[in-house]
């Protein structure tokens, strides 16, 4: 699995766990606001992803994320851009 | 803990919650050991689905008020409380309503919770603006805010029966480090320590205010306590790691309040109380005292001795030949625990679970009151499989961790130590001798006469109320109605003319058992009703309960009542007391579980072998 795919899976799994939503639903509709995305849950996702992936988010950028890919993009900006 | 084990644990929790059953002792033990806040949070969310009836779990209602966002705290607290054997109903308050909720005691919609945990942060105590060149003014502000908090807690105490739980706070670096004068910064640190000391002292104001030392616990537990982003964005001053530390401090209080703490510490010897295997290296060869690692084992022995001094009953569970163990315990110059330190001993080659069960029988205690410490995963596994209710403490790995491993879960915490607690180990040793004595009699009645039993009945006093409340919390078997009057309720009833609270002490030729029974009675003009009566299982089987009924009948009759009424409410664990009222001569009435004794006819049920003594101004009868 590529680093990009692994990261996307980690983001999807973490979102699925916190938002209590199946990963397939998140794939089908990757807009975070379409799910139970609120400020408290977003912070839980932030701490879980930081812990799991060893990254450190700037909260301003994190709060600006609207989709699953936006979050992936925060973690590996270069690679994701190359796939777009 | 690895991800796999965590996933297994969460899967087990989902399974149990889905089936509507609370998790069993083995799973609960894993919950207690969770030090990863992420898993503890997920576990707490799953456990939210538990049904309100907890089977063997002890229900408790906990309100939560906060000076900040409550965040993950309820879930983390739920995980810790279920881990200790409680079934919590958590009732978080509304954001921004901390002071008004305390001032009006508006904690929950349906009556007072048992406990209200207050989550405090520095915003409550610090002003928005302050002058770094005028630390004394800041000190004054801290004192004023502490006085405000004290007043709120007092008001709340007056309006509600809930016990309020507060905690100390770490001084934020952004506050301390913004002062550049070292002198002034040190003074602020002093003021902050004083604030924390004053928060702890709030517990001295009332027996319904308790304080835990979060600042101290955070210093001991290497967790990152703050995340500035979460604080700034979500008013979350603490990380989940810090909240889990607080949850466990609160859990230890609730555990003690509910009587879920343990009484017995069963210990292995080889590589637990000393280093090395006695059978291989001999008493002279074991590591004990001196330099590392012998000092670690001696430190553990010193800690165990300190627990014993506070009433923890010690039991020895070792696979060894008995004679060399006796010799090592008696003669080794560095040994701090001697043979007489142990109330029960099982040094043999039989499986340890069976040995623990036999020792529990000889002490007349349930195996659920045991903690077992052993270095061998095999032995712990065998005990876990056969006696899952026994709490396990691993003693393998570096012996430097032994003391921390033993103490980290606070298994033996009590709210307050009573005189009976302190003498408990000796009482249990006496019991073992009494059991030997009983072998020489033809009938049990002959034996009971020879014991010279004396029951002392006394109305509750300020000195006996803590012990009476402790009996109510801890007694499961001979507990007639299951109503657990806590210390404040017992104290209130003891001074109310419409009630009688009595404490009963038992002694015999082998020693004094101390206060082992209690009764809470409503004194009506015509009828006295026993709201509850409890008796420690230590003194069952001697007719003591009948003598208590006899004394109560006597008191009611003297006061002019015609009827003494008692109730029995089955709890699933008090079957031993099911026949009590009828054995005491009471007649079942049409009411469910209600029994009555006609005081106008006949004698009381006091057995001939018990001498009843009454203190505090009433007559003694025999």
From TrEMBL, chain A:
Q: Where is the Carrier domain?
A: 11-75
Q: Identify one Pfam family in the record.
A: PP-binding
Protein name in UniProt: Acyl carrier protein
Q: Which organism is it from?
A: Streptomyces sioyaensis
Higher taxonomy: Bacteria, Bacillati, Actinomycetota, Actinomycetes, Kitasatosporales
Automatic annotation (TrEMBL), chain B:
Q: Which organism is it from?
A: Streptomyces sioyaensis
- Return the protein name: HAD-IIIC family phosphatase
The UniProt entry, under InterPro entries, shows: FkbH_domain, HAD-like_sf, HAD_sf, HAD_SF_ppase_IIIC, SGNH_hydro_sf
**Per its UniProt record, what NCBIfam families does this chain match?**
FkbH (TIGR01686), HAD-SF-IIIC (TIGR01681)
